[in-house]
Amino acid sequence: MSADFWAGYISGAAGIIIGNPLDLIKVRLQAGTRIAATSPTTYTSQFEGAGSLIRGATAPILGYGALNALLFVTYNRTTALLSQGEAPPSLWTTWTAGAVGGLATWVVSTPTELIKCRAQMSQQATSSWAITKDILRSNGIRGLYSGGMVTALRDSIGYGFYFWSYELSTRLLASSEGGISQSSAGEEAAKVLLCGGLAGVVTWASVFPLDVIKTRVQTQVMATENAPLLENITPAEPASPRKLGAIEVAKNAYRQDGMKVFFRGLGICSVRAFIVNAAQWAVYEWMMRELSSPKQASS
Fold this sequence. Notes:
Belongs to the mitochondrial carrier (TC 2.A.29) family. It comes from Coleophoma cylindrospora. GO terms for molecular function: transmembrane transporter activity. It is a multi-pass membrane protein. The chain crosses the membrane at residues 6-25, 261-284. The structure is a single chain. By secondary structure, the chain is mostly helical. It has a single domain, classed as Mitochondrial carrier fold (Alpha/alpha barrel), CATH 1.50.40. The protein contains twelve helices and no strands. It has helices spanning 3-30, 40-46, 58-83, 91-104, 106-121, 128-143, 148-177, 185-219, 222-225, 246-257, 266-292, 295-298. It is globular, with a radius of gyration of 20 Å.
């Protein structure tokens, strides 16, 4: 396996471990759960103890490791193909390569997101594997790709901006320094953390309404299929004899709450995005240096 595969895999898994508690809050806000922070008792009842803060993490740790590996490998290969030796590649090339990479991750991201969202919406300690078996029993393999179209659109646009904003930030920082002095290791690490964090915020800001729709599409069937798991949670969509598509879900959400519904949870998501993506890029860049350095030649 290539260096960017392993760097992408491990950085993706690390990001999920760091960001899952905040992602749990984001998903419940997007799905229509009312989280009242007015009293400690009310807040605690929404998150049933510390164990719930890592709920739904198993599938993403495995899935997002693979997703991130696929993303970075596809992005790097597409950049090399499109740039044709241009150094550095244009920002348009960077965005396009990121979009292609994001689209390539659809096959992994859709089932991973579906399982994660359902686990996080559950009030019971439900494993990712138990949810997967329920989905397969009810709808087969096709059921794992519920919300696939909107997920593919979100990932393609989002990852385009992900790599574009990271590359833009690093170039702006480099140009502001004028290339005069050599940065220390600590300064370089700080730059990666800053640029990675900003890339995460820009990415989610660019696709957040699509992510809200995706979450509602993927959690709506829980109202009928897994009613016991929804105890004390108000589902975003009422029970329906058929599953609604993304456009219908978006229309219903707008009718109920107006435009604000498409930005519910953006604040907590931005905080999570900065922290997680700062860490992910730091791990990725460090691993690329370690895996690409010819240490064996000196031994």
